[in-house]
Amino acid sequence: TIALAMGEQGLPSRLLAPKYGGFLTFGALAAGSESAPGQPSIADMTQVYRLKQQGSDTRVFGVIGDPIKHSMSPVIHNAAFEALGVDAVYLPFLVTDIEDFMDTFVAHKLAGCSITIPHKEHVAGYCADVDPVAQQIGAINTIVASASSSSGEDKALRASNTDWVAAISAIEAKLAAVDGGSGSGLEGQRVCILGSGGTARALAFGAISRGARVTIANRTLSKAQALAKELGCEAMSLEDLESSSEAAGSVLINTTSVGMSPNVDQAAVSQQVVARFALVFDAIYNPLRTKLLQMAEEEAKLTVSGVEMFIGQAAEQFKQFTGGRDPPLELMRDKVMERL
């Protein structure tokens, strides 16, 4: 059998050919020399996705989102699988229809997935077990096919959120490093979160749980107000954030995709807004130094890169994917930094 689907959505058909008994697969000789959309390079096929090591028993994991080709999750998870001798592969899945993908997930017995923009708030209904914290947040970034669940179903899907602990811990670690550990973290601090999606939900929940006073700022005020009402915090529009000098605080958190590669010259807010906060955190990790973080550095503000959140949440996901095995953190960090 030879079945190779075209385009970015067809990439899994090329990367999983050995697992599903494909006679052959096809890739570009080098990155940049693709003859059609969706072709991976031979180097990535053999080194990142380890085609020669795949077999019918290889477990399939992945990350779903739209867009997704910027994601470095496949690089770090596949490196970690290889380092620990885990017979598994991790792919990027461009998903525009979440219902269709979840049907495919079950039909092809995929083992687990990371969830990113814009699907974090839309997968809970497909999962038999939802972690209480993830349920309270209202956003999910990890699903794992479990052989047993509280519902008693075979291969039920278990959902959780590993975003908030990773991000909040990284922010508090930077604050502690500056005050020598004598401070109280985010307790009592004013935190402004840009965005109203799944990541904003998770980080707002985390900040509030740490005792912070949180404001949600979004381009569409109604969305900010809806999220703020759910979480019991304040809301404002980005326009008001820009115009009000009183809109200031300790921590500014960006959870939007503004500034993500390839749009690296963009920032969600102006430098005037950045100047009103002591610490700036950007959930984006590609590029490493986003425009927002560059503006913060110019203002001599503390900064925390999205890499810290990315590695932290991925490490917890890896534990869930492998039944509790400790991830090779330094290797995962090195792989990210190599790509960045």
Walkthrough of the structure:
The chain is α/β, with parallel strands linked by helices and 340 residues long. The protein has 13 helices and 12 strands. It has helices spanning 11-15, 42-48, 73-83, 98-107, 132-137, 163-179, 198-209, 221-231, 238-243, 271-274, 291-298, 306-321, 329-339; strands at residues 59-65, 88-94, 112-115, 129-130, 142-146, 156-160, 190-194, 213-218, 234-237, 249-254, 277-282, 302-304. Helix 3 packs antiparallel against helix 13, helix 6 (163-179) crosses helix 7 (198-209) and helix 6 (163-179) crosses helix 12. Residues 148-153 have low confidence and may be disordered.
SSE succession: HHEHEHEEHEEHEHEHEHEHEHEHH
Task: State the shape.
Answer: globular
The count of helical stretches stands at 13
Mean pLDDT: 92
Major β-sheet, in short?
A: 6 strands, mixed
Assembly state of the chains shown: single chain
Radius of gyration: 20 Å
Give unreliable regions as ranges.
148-153
- Strand fraction equals 15-25%
In percent, how helical is the residue content?
A: 25-40%
From the N-terminal CA to the C-terminal CA, the straight-line distance is 38 Å
- Number of DSSP-assigned strands: 12
Structural class estimated from helices and strands: alpha/beta
Strand order, sheet with most strands: 2-1-3-5-6-4
